[in-house]
Amino acid sequence: MRVRLVKVLLMIVLVVIISGCSGPANNGLAKSETVKYTLYIGLNDKDTYSQKISTQEAEKKVNDIALKYVDGFTGCIGTGAFKDEKGMVTYENTLIYTFYSVTDEQMKRIMDELLKELNQNAVLIDKQKVDYEFYKGQKL
């Protein structure tokens, strides 16, 4: 009887362990995987620490540069802030662009042009593996 009880308990433990090894349940969304890049482009000039061109003009320049290298993006306008080495806070308008299914090389070319065109020291880039899907509604 005792041996049988041990076997039953062992089977229960194994079933619990094995069931925990399965991947997450698919909820029907995000069926493709890619790399997503997000650029954060401050608009203050690197030499004067103030914005020399309008946000709309900068946005047009970034759009034109990006579309030389990629087929599409999503852009929006935000506000950024930073403290310099003396603790002085500077606020600046920031363009935020998101790109899907592009390469590191494409992003480097875009950033190289942006640095020159907008007179920037640096551009912040965020790179993440993501799951995505173009949702087209439920099929009835």
Would you spell out the secondary-structure blueprint of this structure?
Elements lengths: L1 H18 L12 E11 L12 H15 L4 E10 L5 E12 L3 H14 L6 E9 L8
Antiparallel strand pairs: 1-3, 1-4, 2-3
Helix pairs in contact: 2-3
Protein name: DUF3574 domain-containing protein
CATH topology-level name of the domain at 32-94 and 101-128: Alpha-Beta Plaits
Percent of sequence in beta strands: 25-35%
* Strand numbers in spatial order across the main sheet: 2-3-1-4
- Assign the CATH architecture of the domain at 32-94 and 101-128: 2-Layer Sandwich
> Could you tell me how far the N terminus lies from the C terminus, measured between alpha carbons in angstroms?
55 Å
The first-level CATH class of the domain at 32-94 and 101-128 is given as: Alpha Beta
Structural class: alpha+beta
pLDDT averaged residue by residue: 86
SSE run: HEHEEHE
Number of strands: 4
Shape: elongated
As a percent range, the share of helical residues equals 25-40%
By DSSP (H or I, 4+ residues per run), the number of helices equals 3
Q: Main sheet, how many strands, which sense, barrel?
A: 4 strands, antiparallel
InterPro entries: DUF3574 (IPR021957)
Pfam families: DUF3574
Protein name: DUF3574 domain-containing protein
